[in-house]
Design goal:
This protein is α/β, with parallel strands linked by helices and 348 residues long. The chain has two domains: 154 residues, Rossmann fold (3-Layer(aba) Sandwich), CATH 3.40.50.2000; 178 residues, 3-Layer(aba) Sandwich (Rossmann fold). The protein is 38% helix and 17% strand.
């Protein structure tokens, strides 16, 4: 049996789909399973023990380059990619993305059963038109992981166990250890990570508050502190560290996703805004103190027991807006609110 999983992006979304992959492998131990992903998150599935093949779409790069001198190369790469997508006839194709970009790829793929949710789910962008088996929509207020698992019911899969089995290898752990040593982090002692940046402006908390929080964590709990993020987050995190009186390491842009997961394996807990690394911390089994504003933690918060979600609880939240004139839902969260979440983590 050939099975194609379509989940292109982003980091958190791909992590939310890993339990589905493990459930499918458990149901079909001899199947050949392929995952179709985009570049930004493909490393989270490459080398996964439940996968046989990963197809990587470079869609964003192709779109960017097609108007420049590399246009011909982009067209050739896109053509070869589509050819590769179509070189297998799948028994099952499951669209877990439910966006136009995934729907088009489902439509281009060769398969007998093309399964996904029918119209009625938010942000679907008419992806259901590319399916030949449409599953009745479910409540969006169910957590994303459970919505993915519920889609498997049509296949007779009713798996209850949520497992990720992130493909973190010993090489990634060695790289993580070397990086931490390079930044003066000792192997002994309590290690804590803060991931302060998010893609949406409305998800951001004050740099000054992060500085104050970091100082108080070090003073109150004697922790060693590292900040994590992408290459584009380096300056913001450096600004936060510059506002501190204690020492902390800036690891932004210095880790792959697998190395970041290896670092999170070593921490006591993670403090994070609502962003991909928040889900990565939860996936490696660490408690997360998650700062939420415009989004709904019951939909996409850190999954599982032991996490602490910090919200201001305003009536206008969640609004799911990327732009806001006041951003009160984030501004009204105090340093003490987050420290109270940390205290509850320690108490557990």
């Amino acid at each position: 049996m050939n099975i194609l999983i379509v989940k292109l992006s982003a980091i958190g979304d791909v992590i939310h789909t890993l339990p589905v992959l493990n459930a499918i492998r458990k149901q079909y131990p001899n199947a050949h399973i392929t995952w179709l992903a985009e570049e930004a998150a493909c490393s989270l599935v490459e080398g996964h023990s439940a996968l046989d093949r990963v197809l990587v779409s470079k869609r964003k790069r192709w779109i960017k380059d097609i108007s420049g001198p590399l246009w011909l190369k982009s067209i050739k790469e896109a053509y070869l990619f589509i050819k590769e997508v179509r070189n297998t006839r799948y028994d099952l194709i499951i669209d877990f993305q439910q966006l136009l970009k995934s729907g088009v790829l489902v439509g281009l793929s060769r398969g007998y059963r093309k399964i996904g949710y029918d119209r009625g789910m938010e942000h679907m962008e008419h992806s259901y038109v590319f399916l030949n088996e449409r599953v009745p929509p479910v409540d969006m207020n169910i957590h994303a992981i459970m919505r993915q698992m519920m889609l498997l019911n049509v296949l007779g899969i009713h798996e209850k166990e949520i497992t990720y089995k992130l493909p973190v290898q010993e090489q990634n752990r060695q790289t993580a250890n070397e990086l931490l040593r390079k930044h003066g982090v000792k192997e002994s002692g309590l290690l804590v990570a803060i991931n302060p940046v998010a893609k949406w402006k409305t998800k951001l908390w004050s740099d000054m508050k992060f500085s104050m929080l970091a100082d108080r964590l070090i003073r109150q709990y004697g922790v060693q502190l590292v900040f994590t993020g992408g290459p584009e987050d380096q300056q913001t995190i450096q600004n936060i560290i510059s506002g501190m009186r204690e020492n902390a390491a800036n690891l932004a842009g210095k880790t792959s996703l697998k190395t970041l997961a290896a670092i999170y394996e070593k921490i006591a807990f993670l403090v994070s805004t609502d962003t991909g690394p928040m889900h990565l911390g939860a996936a490696v089994g660490k408690p997360v103190v998650a700062i939420f504003g415009p989004t709904a933690p019951w939909r996409t918060g850190p999954f599982g027991p032991g996490h602490q979600v910090i919200r201001a609880g305003l009536k206008c939240s969640p609004c799911f807006k990327r732009q806001c004139n006041t951003m009160k839902c984030m501004e009204q969260i105090s340093v003490q609110d987050v420290l109270d979440g940390v205290r509850r983590v320690f108490e557990r």
